[in-house]
Amino acid sequence: MTVDAPKSRYRQVADLLRRDITLGKYPPGSTLPSEQDLASEVGVSRVTINRALQILRAEGMVRVLRGRGTVVRSVPPIDRHSNRRYARAAREEHGARGAFDAEIRRLGLIPRSDIVQLEPVDPPEAAAKALGLDPGDRVLIRKRHMYASDEPVLLATSYIPWALAEQAGVTNKNTGPGGTYSRLAELGQGPVRFTEDIRARIPTDDEEAFFDLAENQQIFEIIHMSWTVDDRPVEYRIDALPTFQWILHFEWPAEVVNPDGRS
Amino acid sequence: MTVDAPKSRYRQVADLLRRDITLGKYPPGSTLPSEQDLASEVGVSRVTINRALQILRAEGMVRVLRGRGTVVRSVPPIDRHSNRRYARAAREEHGARGAFDAEIRRLGLIPRSDIVQLEPVDPPEAAAKALGLDPGDRVLIRKRHMYASDEPVLLATSYIPWALAEQAGVTNKNTGPGGTYSRLAELGQGPVRFTEDIRARIPTDDEEAFFDLAENQQIFEIIHMSWTVDDRPVEYRIDALPTFQWILHFEWPAEVVNPDGRS
DNA sequence: TCTTATTTGTTCGTATGTATT
DNA sequence: GAATACATACGAACAAATAAG
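C-alpha cells for the assembled complex are given below, as produced in the milestone run.
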C-alpha cells in the first residue's frame, strides 16, 4: 500500500457519483440532478462535474441526453459465447439468429435484428484481401442492426463472395433452415473452422450515431471468418459491439492443436 | 453519404493531428510542438488542443509526458493467439514463457517478464468463488509484470489453490520444464480445457500507473481459467492488457461442441 | 542542491451553441 | 417562444513534472 495518490477533483467527483449510484442513491433509470445543481452541491464548477460525468459515460454507467439530463443505465452485460454461437446443432435447432436470440433472452430482454443492407457490392479492401478475391470480384454485403429491448447492441456486416452466394441461394433475406452456413454446407463449402480477431477501438462516426456513444467510449471490433475444409475463407464479417455492454467468452480443449501453416 | 455532420473543434483538431502523424509530418518517436505552439498555429485555445490530444492518447497514438512533451508512439499491436498459447507442444518446446516470448519477438521487440509477487495469500472473493474454495483455503498468488522492449504490455495475476501448488511443487520461481501445467499434469491434474472471459474496462489506479495510461484509455481484462479432465478449475488468472496494443486471436472447429451443462 | 524556464494537467468564470421540454 | 440542461470554447491562473543551468 502506498500513500493515497492525490487525485484530481473531477476524478474524486466521479468516484463520489459512482459510489452514490452503486449504493442506490440514484437507481437505474433515474435522472441525476442537473450539472448545475451537482456543481453547487459538491462545491465545484460545472465544467468539473461535466468532466466527471465523461468518465461515467465511458464506463457505460450513465447515459447523457442533451437538453434532458443524465440517466443511470440499467443494461446488464451480455455474454457472447463465441464457440456455442456457431455450433451446427445450435444453428439448426434455433435457426440463423438463434445464438443472438438466446444471448439476449437469457437476460430477459427482447432481441430484434434488422437487415439494413443486402446486395452485391464492390468489397472494401480489407474484405477483398482476407477473402483472397481477384480485382473485379464482387461480394454480397449483409448488414444488420441488432437490438436488445430496443437498445442498439450489435452492428454486423458480413461479406460473402457473390458467385458463391448466388450458387448457394443466400442472396435473399430468407436463407432457409439453418441459415447461410447450412446452404453453403449443401455445396460442400460449409464452414468447418472459425477464427476471430478482437480489438477495441474508438467508434467511427456511423457507430457513434447508431450506438449513441461518446468519443471516449470504445467498441469491440470482431473480425469473424469462416473457413471451409479446404481451408478457404467463405465469409468475412465485422461485428461492432460497445465494450461496456458485452463480455466475450471462449473455450477450447488443450489437446486440439491446429497444425496450420499460417503465421 | 449524409451531409458532413458539423464537428466540434477539438475533434477537428484531433483529425488534423492524426492525419499529420500518419502522413509522417510527425514520425514515430518524435515530439509534437508544445500545446501552446499548436494552439497558436491552429488558432484555438490551449485547452482545446489538450482535449484533442486526449483523443489521440485514447487511441494509443501518442504518449504524453508531463513537463516534457507529447511523443508519437511506435508500438505495433501485438497478436495474442490464445489457442496456440496453451498448446502442450508449444509449452514444452519453448518453456513456460514461450508464448509471450514468441508474440513479442515476432515483432522484433525484446520480451521481459518479472515476477513481482509469489506467495500464499487469502484469495480475493472472485477467485475463491471461481475456484470453488472453502472459507479459509489459501491460494498461491503469482503476479507478473511483462514488457516488450521495456514498454509495459501485460499484467498477469494467477491464483492456484495452495494445497495443489505445494503438492505439485510450483511454489518457486522455477517451475521446471513445461512450467506449472506440466507439473500439474504429472499429478493427473493437468488442464485439458481452457476458458477465457474478455471484457474492456477503465484501468484501476494500479494499472494506470503501471501502463502509464490516461483514464479515457481502456484495458482488456481476460479471466483465464484452466480445467482438469474432471472439470474442476485449477487456475484462475486475470490478465490486464491495454486495448490499443493488443489484438486477440481465437480459432475453433465448427464440429467440436462442448456438451457442458454450465450456462 | 537550488533556481528557473518549459511543458502538460487541472480548475474556474464566463459565454455561447444546441437539444429538449 | 421561454426555460432548462448538456456541449463546447476561451482566457486566465495555478499545480506538478521535467530539463537545463
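Residues 257-263 of chain A have pLDDT under 50 and may be disordered. The CA atoms of residues 156 and 239 of chain A lie 4 Å apart. Further analysis is deferred to the final report.
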